[in-house]
Amino acid sequence: MEAVAALLDQLCPMHVQIDPEGVIRHAGPTMHRLREGGGVGEHIFDLVSVRRPQGVTTTAELMRLAGRKLHATFRTPPRTGLKGLLVPFGEEAVINFSFGISVTDAVRDYGMTAKDFAPTDLAVEMLYLVEAKSAAMAATQRLNRRLQGAKEEAEEQAVTDLLTGLRNRRAMEHTLARMAEAGQGYALMEIDLDYFKQVNDSEGHAAADHVLRKVGAVLRGVSRREDVPVRAGGDEFALILPGLSAPRRIGALARQIICALEEPIEWSGRNLRISASIGVALSEAGQDAEAVMRRADLALYAAKRAGRGRSVIHRADLTLPLEIGKRAARRATSQ
């Protein structure tokens, strides 16, 4: 009998041998690993619960299932699912268990290795396949994350001015179209730099780029969280102001921007000086983004004709110029 037990241990390391009363007389080495003592001395129904066929609660009923596939679970946690096959062995019986599709859970729950399975058990190959699949899925997920990150970065670059970090004209047009479609009110402030060409011609492109970055910083500094500062191209900038329609507030913001831009900008030990002309248009119900931009352009031209360093809010007759600059700001403060 010892030779038979050794043979079963090698061929069926997860088996149990039960006597006619259903008491476990011997258990394979893997069963000992799964349950302390392998259940030896216990009744088979104290070790496992037969789920299918249903209603099997006695040893006699169990013995009549010889040759049929059994579905069972351990009685105590972890209640791993088991497959089983009962084979009569004289007056006793041998039940060979396996995990079936629960093998990955079992490996995780019990820390099993290939040594816990019979050499011919396909579970070992299944584990290798599962591990390979997991590795492949992990690699695919990492690749997908990198691709998604690259996509998001490319999309961000497509709507960002790389020199200033502001939104570009493409982003401005998209934002205005979206707001017009949603019926959301806003003010559009178009900002054109005064005296920038002189800086570019006399100091070079590096100095000009430094000035443009300074302008971007000024616009970010005065913007609310919901505002959209834009570099539309060259020395043209814009500021989209959702929900803002009060001329007094818009005029004050325009004065603040022009005053900030008229501050000397240090470059290589020299002070560079610019100013800005600003044209503003308020959105109107039913009006598309192109119409708002055209009216902002008209207001900007009016500001430049009025002497630069000024802002104009578009009205039907363009009669609302707001003179701006340090002198005007000081005069307004003293009043």
Task: Provide a compact summary of the structure.
The protein is built from twelve helices and 14 strands.
Set out the fold topology.
Elements: H1 2-11, E1 15-18, E2 24-27, H2 29-34, H3 44-47, E3 48-52, H4 59-63, E4 69-74, E5 81-89, E6 92-98, H5 103-110, H6 122-158, H7 169-182, E7 186-194, H8 196-203, H9 205-222, E8 228-233, E9 236-242, H10 247-261, E10 265-267, E11 270-272, E12 275-282, H11 289-305, E13 310-313, E14 321-323, H12 326-334
Parallel strand pairs: 12-13
Antiparallel strand pairs: 1-2, 1-6, 3-4, 4-5, 5-6, 7-9, 7-12, 8-9, 10-11, 13-14
Helix pairs in contact: 8-9, 9-10
Task: Name the descriptors.
alpha+beta; 335 residues; Alpha-Beta Plaits; disordered C terminus; six-stranded antiparallel beta sheet; 2 domains; Beta-Lactamase; six-stranded mixed beta sheet; 23% strand; 12 helices
* Total beta-strand segments: 14
Total number of distinct structural domains: 2
- Overall average pLDDT: 86
Low-confidence stretches: 319-335
Protein architecture, described:
The chain is α+β, with helices and mostly antiparallel strands. It is built from 12 helices and 14 strands. The protein folds into 2 domains: 119 residues, Haem NO binding associated domain (Beta-Lactamase), CATH 3.30.450.260; 166 residues, Alpha-Beta Plaits, CATH 3.30.70.270. Helix content is 45%, strand content 23%. Strands 2-1-6-5-4-3 form a 6-stranded antiparallel sheet. A 6-stranded mixed sheet has the order 8-9-7-12-13-14, with helices on both faces. Strands 10-11 form a two-stranded antiparallel ribbon. Strand 12, helix 11 and strand 13 form a beta-alpha-beta unit. Helix 8 runs antiparallel to helix 9 and helix 9 packs antiparallel against helix 10.
